[in-house]
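Sample 1 of the test manifest.
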Amino acid sequence: MTEYKMFEGCVIGNRIPFIEAASRKVFDKIGIKTSQAPFSCCPDPTGMKSFDNDVWLAIGARNLCLAEAEGKDIISLCNGCTNTLRGVKHQLKHDSLKRDKINSELAKIGKEFKSSVDIKHFVDVFKDEVGVDRIKGAITKQLSGLKVAVQQGCHYMRPAEWMESDDPMKPTTLKKLVEVSGATLVDYEEEILCCGSAVTNAYEEHGFANLKIKWMPSRNLAQMLL
Amino acid sequence: MEDSLEFNKLITEFHIEPEVIKYCYQCSKCSDNCPVTAVTSDQYTDTGYNPRGNILMTLLGRKDSLLEGDDLKIWGCTVCVTCDEVCPQKIELTEVFTFLKNQSIALGKGPDFIYGQAKAVYENGKAIPPQPAIERRREKLGLPKVSAPDVGELQSLLKNMGADKKLK
């Protein structure tokens, strides 16, 4: 299997590294090879993009240049990073004026965005390259008796225009992975509702009102897989 | 009038497919499905967050109505991109709202959080800088050190683009 450049992102790398540790263990077991690169912040599709879209494009394109220099696709552990890097590639691919502008800035630091690498969320690598059957075969301990509700997160599948990962309003991939683990999948109506993170950062009260709607019906029913 | 024409020009230059935004017929599917509208909007007092209204005001070039007054009008968008998916005219609403947010920042407005994150990225190359406690935890978990970004190179890129001047 091809080697990917690992994009763990700021949140996983510098705040919740157990997710990276768990991911690396699974990658080793099913044969996904990765290596590191000195990536910066992706940057955040809700923060830096709102600050300045061109700056968001330039920082994202610079990260893509680092992967392009080694000719390797990126595997991302984070929905936000995947969304940014795919979004940057999408905008620069479809808007030649923006691409020229960003490339003239990148030229000043000795780089050029060529649009030559792909960015994949690890869930999609599991689905498309490894295959659900192989994942099933690699599981040694079935999670029988555990009830799991999934929270795919908005940026894993929206906008469908550039994420091209799953149905934007009825995602199924993560659920299929839960099913092969032996756990019992718990459906709930608010499954694709936003967690409200971006608005919580600015308006705590509105963000938390959002979360409450999301969590109340499913409480006590299941563990939530984020 | 000139101001609104200029605003219209900016939005059409920003949007990937500038003509598409004009196809909006105010059906309200965006607002009906917006999670923030659900918890903030009061149709009787016209307060709270309303994506349909933002598209209308953008089309009309009403810069004053959008960028002055309550920040929630623009910054209530939580970037869930649900509106893009339910729009029958396939308008990329979230891109339009990104444009509005960028305009708000250019005026020095917008939530402190956004400035804080931009500053962290400028100073450390990461929105969340490395911390000794987490580095120790990474070691315990058997993880390699995070590959450090070239902060100097990133700062040159941002300075050349004038991003440092927008920081607070």
